[in-house]
Write a structure and sequence with these properties.
Blueprint lengths: L5 H7 L7 H7 L16 H8 L8 H14 L4 E4 L28 H6 L12 H4 L9 E4 L5 H9 L1 H10 L1 H22 L5 E7 L12 H21 L4 E4 L8 H7 L4 E3 L8 H8 L4 E3 L4 H6 L2 H15 L5 E2 L12 H12 L3
Parallel strand pairs: 1-2, 2-3, 3-4, 4-5, 5-6, 6-7
Helix pairs in contact: 1-15, 3-4, 7-8, 7-9, 8-9, 9-10, 14-15
Length: about 350
């Protein structure tokens, strides 16, 4: 039994990235070894894992820090978003937790017409070209978006106002969804074409703990058609499409797998459905990514996190179609030792 902490073991391990493993997972195959997946970590952890000090205003040091951290932690990729393309935002409080009714900039047709939309074709994506020379052999970029279709519409309109708009002015609602969706499709058309990119994440939170944020029929009318086009844009480049979406997706899971044809689904929560149960239910239809509940990782001991992670890898070893990670992401409040215990369950055999 090693006397080293889980963090010490992770820092001492020799990375061997191979994006082909994540590709196999997303093709519902068994990877060559236990494979890890995470949407994002946090900057103190990035710097500790990479040993790179980020210099303010020097973008390359930021990217080098991200790459170094993902590599040392055992991932076969690094998640990245070209920073220039984004959607307009209104005034919001500076607190980290913000109401989904705050900051709307569109209330009617007049404010819609005045909205200062960005065109992806005029934005700078060159980072995805020069990042190629920074990537270690075997690693790829997994590109995400500046939020997703529903997330950005809610940010632009406000959640309560959007609910009223769907009933009172569906034409305006369609116009807002179309303005957001079409730009996101173009974002993935551009980003997916770079050699450095191995897959794309469409990150769009859709639900609460008990149900989707909009009625399933409204999701099918306003939201899902744009996700069909996003997946098609990514698949056009021969690359897998991953959906990151929080909330209870039980009523719409068939839409995700059959209509949209996403290759992988990320974000799971024990209070909704433990990932072990979700894998038994959906693992033959879509790759499942992550799922070790963030609350569990925070509250359980590192050894308990390690044992659950190891059991999940054992459950999925024969059929594959799974990559280990948290249910959502690794914010600063997640204990570093517990996070490292989780990934060590995959790294120890390498």
């Amino acid at each position: 039994m090693s006397t080293k902490t889980y963090l010490e073991r992770v820092l001492a391990h020799s990375p061997s990235p191979d994006f082909g493993n994540l590709q196999k997972v997303l093709k519902h195959m068994r990877p060559n070894r236990a494979t890890l997946f995470e949407f994002f970590l946090n900057y103190p952890l990035y710097q500790r894992l990479s040993g790179v000090t980020v210099k303010p205003g020097v973008e390359r040091t930021d990217v080098q820090c991200l790459i170094g951290a993902f590599r040392q932690a055992g991932y076969d990729y690094v998640t990245y978003r070209p920073p220039e393309f984004a959607f307009p935002r209104g005034e919001r409080p500076r607190e980290k937790t913000v109401s989904i009714n705050e900051g709307g900039v569109i209330a009617d047709w007049a404010s819609f017409e005045k909205c200062p939309w960005k065109d992806p074709d005029t934005c700078n994506y060159s980072q995805l070209k020069w990042i190629q020379e920074l990537l270690p052999d075997g690693m790829k970029v997994v590109v995400c978006g500046p939020g997703g279709v529903l997330e950005n519409v809610i940010a632009l309109v406000g959640y309560e106002r959007l609910c009223f708009m769907l009933a009172d002015d569906p034409g305006l609602a369609h116009a807002v969804f179309d303005a957001v969706g079409s730009r996101l499709v173009r974002h993935y058309e551009i980003a997916g074409g770079f050699e450095s990119v191995g897959a794309c994440i469409s990150n769009d939170d859709w639900g609460f703990k008990t149900q989707p944020m909009l009625a399933p029929q409204a999701m099918r009318e306003y939201v899902f058609p744009w996700h069909v086009k996003i997946v098609q844009a990514i698949h056009h480049h021969g690359k897998p499409a991953i959906l990151h979406s929080c909330g209870n997706a039980a009523e719409i899971m068939q839409d995700i797998t059959d209509a949209m044809e996403y290759d992988g689904k990320h974000s799971f929560e024990d209070a909704i459905e433990p990932v072990e149960d979700a894998y038994r239910k959906y693992g033959r239809r879509i790759a499942l990514l992550g799922g070790i509940d963030v609350d569990f990782v925070c509250r359980a001991s590192p050894d308990e996190v390690y044992r659950r992670s190891k059991a999940m890898l054992d459950l999925t070893a024969a059929a594959g179609s799974y990559a280990l990670g948290t249910g959502n992401s690794v914010p600063e409040y997640v204990p570093t030792g517990s996070y490292c215990a989780m990934i060590w369950a995959a790294l120890e055999a390498r």
